[in-house]
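User: Quick one: structure for sequence A, then sequence B.

Assistant: Sequence A:
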Amino acid sequence: MATSESQGNVTEEVKSGNFGFQFKIHRQAYRLGRYGGEFYLRDYSRRDVYLIKVFKQGESERARKEMAILNKLQNCPNSSKILATITGNEKIPLNGIVTDFVAFVKWGDYSKTMTSADIQHYTYQLFIALDACHSQNIIHGSVNPSNLRIDNNNKVLKLTEWENAEEHEDGNFYRTNFNSLYFQSPELILNFKKYDYSIDLWAAGCIIAGSIFKMPYVFDGEAKNEQMQKIARVLGKWKLLSYAEEYKIIVSKRLRSKIRRCRAKGFEIFKTKNCEQTATEEAIDLVKKLLIYDHTKRLKAKDALQHHYFSEFHKKTYLNSKNKDQEHNIQNNSPQVNENSLYSNKDAYLKFVIHGEIGSGVSGKVYRVKDPENYYDYAVKSFERAALSNLWEEVKILKHLEGCPNINRYLGYIVSETMSIQCLVFEFVSTQLWGQIFDKLSVEDIGIYFYQMLLALQGCHSRGIMHRDIKPSNMLIDHFRRKVYLTDWGHATFYREGVSYDTHVGTRKYCSPELLLRYQKHDYAVDMWSIGCILASAVFRVRYIFDGEDREDQMLRIVKILGSNNLLHYCKKYAISAPCLSNWGQFLGYHRIDWRKLITGENKAVATDEAIDLLDKLIVFDHKKRLTSSEALKHPFLNKFRHSFA
């Protein structure tokens, strides 16, 4: 006899396994932004960590825009790599982007200790990233030290955080207030909205200047006017005012007056003994060609790569680190369910689009999620916020069911307690509703479907598991392929002989007598009763063989067919007092009805002697006398279909 699994806290063993989706989103946000939050996404199947950005409700358009931008940048070096997208709808407003993650440090946390060679090396990679995104007509818009991530072990820099990125078209107007003020170009500070890629080059110049001069910020104004004055004290006032006049940029009288008092001191004012090794002539020259008022005259990224600051030696060093980065990406590829189904021919990442609700239960709802690129669908069971413990119990059951025949294939989980994302992922099965087909099934259809259902039950019972909620809606019937899969293990539990179990499980119309009578020491036989009820529905062409309006009425309808004496003998044998039945008198005086009396002209073609004999041995009061799943598979009614599954 199988033993029960240990109860208690969820272990790492429960979370892990050979499933494609085993993701847990950490409670603490990695970064909170304007449109959503980024969180660590741990993959228990591969022991990898990713980042997932979950957008706020109402930001679906921004989510789609960012997805489109990252899609264009998919092959760009030194930038975030998109691994998956999740697109919701009005009813399910969940939108997310999964990107790669390595334990990088921010540029700002590392810049104080950077050598001249380090600055050259990582700056070169920054321009590689900017040149790549600008060549795709993308303005990053938020280039600053927090968005530059450095993997110092592999000597790799990545440009991240694309939520403020824009696809550029000449003549367009853009927002001007998103990047940190310390890295905003003059045109942004002065609210000039027809800017272009050059705002990224100004920001890059500020970062490089801060690194070579060993200071956090070269321009550290606390407000826009103060920032503009600090820039004018270095670059001069007349060039600024001429620039504003040329491009018809409005400068307030107050700011104009303050700027006129500024004298150009140049970048030499930042030179100290502390930066003698890093603030070389070549480095300062590069900064001067980036930090120019006129955005049309700033060095472009592709031109910056040719600047004499970068020696051939450093270019070769970068190329070596680039190869390492590529190797690292190969080793840390995105998670797979199987090699043929997940990866698109068009884009090397997953795209999940949430469609409508396809089912619901006590713990939550089930949604259809499509991967439109690969024509692959999933069924995602979403649990209510308070039902996380139910999810882990179901995961524990599903892990034990791996390899069972005719079980809806479990692919993994996605969990975030912070964002109330608690999902199990399954293969999607295109199904027909039982109510639409039960009265049209041929004898062969009935035999094939019930043989498969019993194979599923034999598999789960042999692993020590009671399903306890067998009903047509938990049978995924693909009528076109004549396949059926058992699903929904929310009421399932491990069986251990002599243990008392909760009887508030199952669905009334398919509940066995022991569940209706609150007999706690039930076993696998509860599933066999339910299968018998569904078989009777198909054989006699009735929606429900026992259609009670409540628990007591359900028992009464059973007694009207199986007889009062069978109920009394059963209760006496197992010492069942049944306090849940308020009026025992109503259950007396009924004689057992022969199943053949239910045969009509409409069902006689399928109500064969063998079929009736099988259901008669399943719909039995005494649970010890019901056929087991293994015994039922050998019954003459089903044995003839064994060849279909050999």
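Sequence B:
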Amino acid sequence: MDKRWLAIAGAGLTLLAPWLLLHMSPDIEHEQSLCPHKLLTGLPCPGCGITKSLVLLYQGDLLGSLSYHLFGPLVVLGCIGVLVWMSAELFTRRRYLRSLLYSTPLAWYGAVFLGVYHVVRLCYFISTRSIHEILHESMWR
């Protein structure tokens, strides 16, 4: 199987899952997180909040989306880009921008930006909550 089909499926599911949650659970802002790290520690992992960010973005609330995770809107743009890019490659039977896809410096910049964002977000999370509130967000309540 061509890996481009897997990329299309992954991007499509990434965009579809929050849309389904939006229609199945309209009050998702108050739902318990299903992140294993957050359930164990009460602290968010680097990806925590992206799903809620996408749900709020689908509702048209950009600021709310950014408050849950800065990368939420970027994930939507990235997934749409992957859908268009991989579909174009399959349709034309040509490969485009392969040097961008396998760019080590780009991956490092993204990883460092996510790491710095996570540390800042974690410091803010801890400074604005008591230990009891943090534990309440875990399974140890």
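The chain has a mean pLDDT of 91. Residues 3-136 form one domain.

User: Thanks, that's what I needed.
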